[in-house]
Amino acid sequence: MEDEVILLNFWLSPYGMRVRIALEEKGIKYENREEDFSNKSPLLLQMNPVHKKIPVLIHNGKPICESLIAIEYIDEVWNHQSPLLPSDPYQRAQARFWANYIDTKIYVVAMKFWKTEEEEEKEAAKKELLERLKLLEEQLGDKPFFGGDNLGFVDVALVPLFCWLYTNALRGSFIDEIQYPNIIAWVKRCADKESVSKSFPDENMIKRFAEERRLLRQGK
Ligand code: GS8
Predict the structure, then answer these.
(1) 54 lines ligand 1 (CB under 6 A)
(2) What pLDDT digit, counting tens, does each position of 153-171 carry?
(3) Within a domain: 204
(4) Quick check: is 24 in a domain?
(5) 67 lines ligand 1 (CB under 6 A)
(6) 81, 82, 54, 86: which is closest to 70 by C-alpha?
(7) Whole domain around residue 55: which residue ranges?
(8) 41: in domain
(9) Residue 82 is assigned to a structural domain of this protein
């Protein structure tokens, strides 16, 4: 029987992008279904009754919620190619540690930075985010990917952040090549991969979205 794979998603969600990248890395055919947060589908409410959030991966009718859990699931079920987690238990634990750091320390402040309307708060979130990224800059070192020679779990967890940081006003001014040479080179290396570029939204769509938000804020 053919596997049925559906992804409940929202095009701008970095969490959704993680799952897309993992599916693309494995070459899995899936149906992407966009959700409207102001009118969530009955399927989303049924499949993720606890958080009612995307992404939800639905594999042969069964839901897998939380993006990092979905990536691990994908890696375990489709284990024939492109392993995302290392096979060594210690290395695997390390990868999970850094993915957890990315979720709890990086994405949390990135979301604050992205969503806050208040200038001072925005500046503070940016400063914090840059400080925390410094640790990842060191952790990456001169390795091609966090996972070593190939894109892995930690890379998939982090890279969607940069589809935002690389667009609109943030481009160039947010994170610079002098202070973050490893991360900058790594983002480019990731973006060269089809699994990543295919999963990133169109840059113009992000710009339009940011512009609409700006106008909305100004009450226009
Ligand atoms: C986060 C999912 C999430 O925040 C994960 O999957 O890793 N820890 C989860 N999803 C957001 C969209 S991204 O900003 C969401 O579904 N929001 C809808 C809502 O809150 O109503």
Answers:
(1) yes
(2) 999 999 999 886 655 444 5
(3) no
(4) yes
(5) yes
(6) 54
(7) 5-77
(8) yes
(9) no
